[in-house]
Design brief:
heterodimer, A: 286 residues, mainly alpha, 0% strand, B: alpha/beta, Rossmann fold, Alpha-Beta Plaits, six-stranded mixed β-sheet, elongated, disordered C terminus
């Protein structure tokens, strides 16, 4: 029978599980995100560098293609931790751009439209809500980070001589862990910015500003005090140090693995506090 | 025995440094009975805080609040699974179409994907937004937005629907439609309804029970249904002709009456004697009836008394006069 003829009846059937309900939010968000042309274009552009890296891996594993060239060139073509570090550096920048485009649409509209009471009057906690919103970003950013990263790693394992995997297996784990850490930080920045300002455009600018301003502040500290440790204020540099540690590459001068990790942890805690304060079903004025 | 819809035990809620609810205790409604509870009170009485506490938005400082037998703080999920909430202020996602919005809300409430879509369409037709269901909610008029808010509150078929000022900003026709839908929710679909409104007529038209709050306390709790029943026995009468024998005739039927002079009477009918009998009695006494009304206290009068604006309601005043009459003149 047609719906309009049937009339309203109360639903009394079985209900879905908790996580099915929570995951409805990212599903709807992805549906809306992938309707944006700019998002599709940016995602496509983000895949260019992994494609170039794949070509690079192919060339480096086919000695006959560069057999006429000198030894220095063969050293440059080595697939090692440094190669994956460069790959991560480039993709992490795309991560920020994608988060700046997608992040503001996640929480800011809910705040602007006062939709939080509707979510929280349903069996959904604030933690569930944040996890659902974060899943939206994690899912999307994974497409340009650890997924192509592990594909490249797998490609290299498949093409390289037998001993390569035995000597470099940690690169796969380091790459995935490093990217997941970065996605988490970028997602937290995007969510906190989206929760802090209700206007999408300003929230997007805030996400970009967060990374650029902190990078500027770090450079200023280094310049004024003639030190190197100011870099830990720059989340991108701090994350780079952690990636170096994970991939077994030498950490840049003036940076330390643990102080970088601590700086990132502090940033995450501060962002979590912003979310805790802003995401409330009702505002209480004391 | 069925659990009460709402059970408050010395509930105290503090927001910031201010204590808003000052130890409320009451039991309202019976779950599954399909009755409506009206929540009334002047601004700042604590109505919204009470609703938000029931939804688990605020943690009680002391005491407890239970909804349909579940503690609002410790069993939040169980409570929220059974509730539909229509907030007072605009709450929706303006850029979504009504059907997507309702589908999302239904899925968040636990409906499977296909059922959620089906229910979204069904509910939008039910509230009169069927033709506009593919429009984004941001383009809706105020009345349509109110209906969309109602739709999201009932799309999952909750046991209890909490409506916060549902008729706000509606024109008379839309208001009637909203009240009709609320009546249908309780009468046809067996949902319990909590209606929070400052419009006493809305509450009077729809609710079976009413709670009046003032300064964080419950100052009056009335069963409107029982009151309506009892008030049917109380009659105000105005006749012309010689009514000297009327008091004896009334006493013969078991009725009590008191003359106010000038042919005006206040009469309390016995249980086995109805208004038709009174008409016959008046005809037998050769009296012409100029006015006959079932006078009962309006909710406005009950409200004004509860918040301290009047000493007693007209009904109470009449009963007092009746008592004086019985003890004095009769």
């Amino acid at each position: 029978m047609a719906v309009y003829k049937r009339g309203y009846q109360r639903y009394r059937g079985p209900v879905t599980g908790h996580w099915t309900r929570v995951l409805a939010l990212p599903r709807f968000a992805w549906e809306r995100l992938f309707q944006q042309r700019l998002m599709i274009v940016l995602l496509a552009v983000s895949c260019l560098w992994p494609l170039l890296c794949a070509v690079f891996i192919y060339i480096s594993n086919h000695a006959e293609l560069w057999s006429g060239l000198d030894g220095g060139f063969s050293k440059m073509l080595a697939i090692d931790g440094r190669f994956f570090l460069v790959f991560m550096d480039v993709q992490s920048a795309f991560c920020i751009l994608l988060a700046a485009l997608a992040g503001p649409g996640l929480i800011a509209p809910d705040l602007a439209n006062n939709a939080l009471p509707l979510y929280f009057s349903r069996p959904l906690t604030r933690v569930d809500y944040v996890l659902a919103r974060m899943t939206t970003l994690v899912g999307m950013l994974s497409l340009v980070t650890w997924v192509p990263g592990l594909a490249l790693f797998g490609m290299q394992v498949g093409m390289a001589p037998a001993g390569w995997f035995a000597n470099n297996w940690h690169l796969g784990g380091g790459l995935a862990a490093g990217f997941l850490l970065w996605i988490f930080i970028v997602s937290m920045v995007a969510l906190a910015s989206s929760a802090y300002v209700k206007w999408r455009l300003i929230a997007g600018a805030l996400i970009l500003g967060f990374f650029f301003l902190l990078a500027g502040a770090a450079a200023m500290v280094n310049g004024v005090f003639r030190v190197e440790w100011g870099n830990i204020l720059n989340p991108a540099k701090a994350a780079h140090s952690v990636w170096c540690g994970l991939l077994g590459v030498e950490i840049p001068v003036g940076m330390d693995l643990w102080s970088s990790a601590a700086a990132l942890a502090l940033i995450v805690v501060l962002l979590a506090l912003v979310l805790e304060r802003k995401l409330r079903p009702v505002e209480v004025i004391s | 025995m069925a659990a009460p819809v709402i059970e408050l035990n010395n509930l105290r809620v503090k927001l910031g440094r201010r204590e808003i609810l000052l130890g409320i205790s009451c039991r309202l409604g019976v779950s599954g009975s399909g009755k409506a509870i009206g929540l009334l009170g002047p601004n700042g009485a604590g109505k919204s805080t009470l609703i938000q506490t029931l939804l688990g938005f605020h943690k009680p400082m002391a005491g407890s609040a239970r909804v349909l037998g579940f503690d609002c703080h410790h069993n939040q999920r169980a409570v929220r699974e059974r509730i539909g909430y229509m907030p007072e202020s605009d709450s929706f996602i303006a850029s979504m179409t009504a059907v997507s919005f309702l589908r999302l809300m239904a899925e968040l409430s636990g409906l499977p994907r296909e059922t959620a879509l089906e229910k979204a369409h069904e509910t939008l037709f039910h509230v009169g937004l069927g033709e506009a269901r593919y429009r984004t909610i941001g383009t809706y008029s105020l009345g349509m937005k109110q209906m969309a808010k109602l739709a999201q509150a009932i799309v999952h078929g909750p046991e209890l629907v909490i409506l916060d000022e549902p008729t706000n900003g509606l024109d008379p026709a839309a208001r009637q439609r909203m009240l009709k839908l609320v009546r249908e929710m309780k009468e046809q679909h067996g949902m319990n309804v909590v209606l929070c409104s400052h419009l006493l007529r809305d509450v009077e038209e729809v609710c079976d029970e009413v709670v009046i709050m003032k300064d964080g306390n419950v100052v009056h709790h009335a069963d409107l249904e029982a009151e309506r029943r009892s008030n049917k026995r109380f009659v105000e009468l105005e006749v012309s002709g010689d009514d000297a024998n009327l008091i004896n005739a009334l006493q013969d039927t078991g009725a009590d009456g008191v003359s106010e002079g000038g042919g005006r009477w206040r009469i309390v009918l016995p249980a086995n004697f109805d208004v038709a009998g009174l008409w016959k009695l008046l005809a037998a006494e050769n009296l012409n009836v100029r006015k006959l009304t079932h006078r009962r206290d309006t909710l406005e009068e009950i409200f004004l008394k509860a918040v301290g604006h009047i000493q007693r309601t007209p009904g109470e005043a009449a009963a007092a006069a009746e008592e004086v009459g019985v003890n004095g003149r009769l």
